[in-house]
Write a structure and sequence with these properties.
CATH architecture of the largest domain: 6 Propeller
Structural class: mainly beta
Number of strands: 39
Number of helices: 1
Strand order of the largest sheet: 2-33-38-35-36
Number of domains: 2
CATH class of the largest domain: Mainly Beta
Shape: elongated
Radius of gyration: 25 Å
Low-confidence stretches: none
């Protein structure tokens, strides 16, 4: 007999085949790795006192000059403000043009009439996809600026819960997105229906948009074959992302005001809300890869789950993807619709501090990081309430778990018999373990457990290829480190 450490590296590896995930965590939900230890993510509880009438897309939280806190979010045809107490107020601008809850008019696999083409053959790209409507929400001091691409206008809300947001005077229409820069200019991106045009207001004056010798209003057109999708503020300037490339805008002062240069190619943004800013720079989801801007250039991120994510995502509804930072744990979360769903039902997480990735299933449509509020806020896709996250460890009907890919104990084709498990966890009994074994890669898999862990735990199973699954108990703040098993080579089979 010999004690063997089950040293499984932090994070999930889900690229390639099942056997390529040997010795790594492969399938997880509602768990994270922090300081090298696996633990459950925080739970959630309702923040809003009433549901939105439709799916919320786009969210911002901020504090006014009197320290009152607000959340803003919108549906395809409404705009709402939530107070600190979670009370929802309809601040929809008069005359707002309704958009779409779902993306429409796509021409790839799954569109058209069943049987009209051979299986697996995409149809000709002759129709533009109409993306789902998402709100771009920006703070203007204590006020709110709001815009969505289907309506194209820019609105301002002055914090009066009884008065709707009002049209911003003199601002261009037909815009794809907006951005309030660190220098206090308002950028209208894709201004006036021109998908490459960046137009900005005068400094500190969002009602002056016509250039003159007495102001700093102006515009530039990007040299790109793509369409502007979003803009974010990063250290030293503003990053403008298109469907094809990335551009960096720097304030230069009069007479040119802003200069813009391309900083990345073939790094297009997948969705209008798919970029997240952290201290290290900006990170976003592309159509087939993840990208990061580090302050000087764009590079593709090496992701250990990209194969799984981009083969699983519903490309027809990719416009619903949104990213949100969870700064408490140095994480970026992207929620996306899986191939079998038209709504966001899964997530992928990048821990930029520990350079690890993890995945899971959770239906959220909009979110904002902690800041104005102590915890992140996210909107549920099923009941359309806003929830406060990282609170307790209540997940409703869901259970945090992690399962490894196959691993072998010892070398060669020896059959291994395991008789005892010595767990490494924070509190005994907070975690159950199940083991699965096979004698051949495509052979029948047998399951043993679940075992309620004690120190030691008596287990008995045999196989060449093993797999381990751990599940957290309800409402428990558990930790899992390096478990050990008492194993012996049992000969050949």
């Amino acid at each position: 007999m010999a004690l063997v450490d089950l040293k499984i590296p932090p994070g999930v590896y889900r690229n390639g085949t099942d056997l390529q995930t040997e010795g790594r965590w492969r399938d997880v939900n509602l768990v994270r790795w922090h300081d090298g230890l696996m633990r459950p993510v925080g739970g959630w509880r309702k923040k809003s006192t009433s549901a939105a009438p439709n799916k919320l897309r786009g969210m911002l939280s901020w504090t006014d000059n009197s320290s009152n806190r607000y959340i803003a979010s919108g549906t395809y045809n409404k705009l709402f403000a939530y107070t600190n107490a979670g009370v929802k107020y309809d601040i929809t601008p008069v005359g707002l043009s309704a958009g779409r809850e779902d993306a429409a008019a796509f021409t790839a696999y799954g569109s058209g009439f069943y049987g009209s083409l051979a299986y697996g053959v995409a149809r000709q790209d002759t129709t533009n996809i109409q993306p789902a409507t998402v709100w771009n929400l920006q703070p203007w001091g204590e006020r709110l600026l709001a815009q969505n691409a289907d309506d194209g206008k820019i609105y301002e809300w002055a914090l009066n819960t009884g008065t709707p947001a009002a049209l911003l005077s003199n601002a261009p229409t037909g815009n794809e997105a907006i951005l309030v820069t660190e220098e206090r200019f308002v950028f209208a991106l894709g201004a006036g229906g021109n998908p490459r045009k960046v137009q900005w207001s005068d400094r500190e004056d969002n009602n002056t948009w016509t250039p003159a010798t007495t102001n700093e209003a102006g515009d530039l057109e990007l040299a790109t074959t793509g369409t502007i999708m979003a803009g974010v503020n990063v250290r030293g300037g503003s990053l403008i992302l298109t469907s094809r490339d990335a551009h960096f805008a720097t304030y230069q002062g009069p007479p040119y005001v802003y200069g813009i240069e391309r900083v990345g190619t073939a790094c297009g943004l997948a969705s209008a809300l798919g970029c997240v800013v952290v201290d290290q720079g900006a990170v976003w989801m592309g159509v087939n890869s993840f990208f990061a801007y580090n302050g000087s250039s764009v590079a593709e991120l090496n992701s250990e789950v990209s194969d799984y994510v981009f083969n699983d995502i519903n490309k027809a509804q990719i416009s619903k993807v949104f990213g949100v930072s969870n700064s408490l744990y140095n994480e970026i979360w992207w929620y996306y619709p899986s191939s079998g769903s038209t709504e966001n039902d899964r997530y992928v997480v990048y821990n930029y501090s520990e350079n690890t990735w993890y995945i899971g299933e959770l239906d959220r449509t909009a979110g904002t990081d902690r800041g104005a509020f102590r915890q992140p806020m996210l909107a549920d896709a099923s009941d359309m309430y806003v929830y406060e996250h990282e609170v307790g460890f209540d997940y409703g009907t869901l259970t945090p778990f992690a399962e490894t890919g196959p691993f072998r104990i010892g070398t060669g084709d020896n059959v291994i018999s395991v008789t005892e498990l010595i767990p490494d966890e924070k509190n005994q009994g907070d975690v159950n373990a199940t083991f699965k074994s096979r004698f051949y890669p495509n052979g029948t898999e047998r399951s043993y457990g679940p075992f309620s862990l004690t120190n030691p735990t008596s287990v008995r199973f045999t196989g060449r290829q093993l797999r381990m699954r751990v599940e957290g108990q309800a409402l428990a703040d558990w930790r899992v480190g390096i478990n050990r098993v008492d194993a012996v080579a049992g000969g050949r089979r």
